[in-house]
Amino acid sequence: MPKPDHAMEIVAGAVVTPEFPSINALWNIWQTGHRPQHHATPPPAAPNWHHLLASTLLPILGHVRDSPHCALILATAKGNIANIEEWMANLRQGKNAGQLPELMSDSLNIVGRELGLGGPCYVVSTACTSGLTALIEARELIASGVVSEVIVVAADTITGFTRDGFKSLKALTQTTCRPFDKNRDGLALGSAAAACLLRRCAPCTPPLRTVSVIGWGIAADAMHRTAPDRAAGGLIRAIRNAMSMAGVDPQAIDAVVLHGTGTRYNDQMEATAMRELFAHRPALTGLKGLIGHTLGAAGLIETLLAGQCLTTGIVPPMVGLQHTEYPDLNLVMQPGPARPIKYLLKTASGFGGLNAAVILAHTVSQ
Amino acid sequence: MNIPVYLYAWISLDTSRTPQVLGWGSGSWQAVERPTTKAANLACDAAQALMAGVAPTLRDGSGLFIGTTTGSLHDDIIFDNSRTTDGGQYPSPNAFRRTLPSTIATELTMDLGLHGPVVVYAAGAASAVVACVRGAEYIRRGMVPLAIVGGIEVWNEAIPGGIAPAHVSADAAITAQPQVSPERCQMVLACIGPAELPGAPRPMSEFTQARLGGSNIHSPTTVNCRLQPLVDFLVAGQGQLVVDGAVGIKAWLELQRR
Predict the structure, then answer these.
(1) Are A126 and B246 a contacting pair at CB < 8 A?
(2) Which end of chain B offers a freer environment for a tag, N or C, measured as fewer CB atoms within 10 Å?
(3) ipTM
């Protein structure tokens, strides 16, 4: 069990996508391993940014004990890109005098003011690792004694700007997202938001059946603007640092929720890291075949769902994977029975060679 | 854990403010001829100079903590132009690669050979200050041996042009002068770490005491001085920090309480 100084828990979590209104809705479908037929085509219009933030934060608010001192961290890769896109369209027509678009900190300011949160508030933007990095930041704010409660909200919406960008990189799938599959052809994009409340636990009152972040690592490849390090140097370093902080040996990791974008370079890099680090071949799964790549929100969404894996002992299949390219790895392809999971690894990687990893543990009172 | 964090060196693209006594330069004009954006090259050149005195072994695990308010807005405009002209036939992949607030930070990791944690913060006008404080906290917690902290803003003509004239202060005119950068790049970076760190330069001053020096909150609509508070603080050694913007005020007050 985690030591007392690790005693901080993810008290509450919420996830909202255009297709799934809650964590439970998403979890129930993920367990089946299949994307519902009517969800095959992503919705064309991006959800409203503020509505998305509000709909994830509202379920969290009721759990906050000390709003005047509660910190708030927003994780996002692009912020309110729909608003920025509109601003740029106006700019082309010379209509922008006297105004700026909604910057990332403006979004945060709106949220913080509306919710009456008085603690530190800032945005973390580290590409597709934003959600996981923000969770790590929240953990560190609590561990260093700055605050005892932190709300982390992570969101990104997909608009023409983002779609055109990934299309220009030839990174988008023409079919469906199939991570680690022989026939994969790229990633799918998805809009989503997630929020959670992290809280320090009183030393004498260990939490009951909650999920804790007991170790983390962040490392940079320092190699390329978009492509990951083929040797997975940064990802391996991040995972090793996370395990070292948690005091967990590699063979103790029971399951991994991978970044799993479905692009060739990402999948190869993650496969390399898994081979290098885990000779015992833990269960590997991922969520992007179901909801797409949700950019800055992905890390937090997948961590919250990983928490469901820990508490239920179920590791759902890697959605979209039918013909594995990596038969030597234990990629989960079919729903299986529940089994005890003590430690779970969640990873994320992003443009610019950013890598983040957290070790999650299931904390149960004695 | 109360480990003092020291300022080893700092550097800005504004040569008149950078402490020349350290003998470390700032961005060079040669940098603007390289294929990536001029602003990024200016920043990387300056940061290389900043790290010149740091042992390679120490560099490797060092962290990079950067604040920015406008993020990648400048590059967003460039990419958006590429995807909206000529019927949208030619969206530029090179331009898209730069449309993240973390782009310049990751370019710095490549240029400096940093493999440690990288975090990019936005907190209104306090962005760079938050980055400094968080970097110091990572050092105190033993997560990084050394940290490069600071802020980067890349101005496009459209950005200050979007500010209501009444809110443009004299500082805006200064930052818009072409001799700073043709693309209005502003950058200030500092190298911080524990005292007497093997392989690091001689400490300049204690950083953490100055962090608690006080605040002087001014107009929240003066948006052009996002990095100025940090420069003022560094120039003054242990002077006062000035932050603005509602998010910045809230972040600063909370940090000051510590």
Answers:
(1) no
(2) N
(3) 0.94
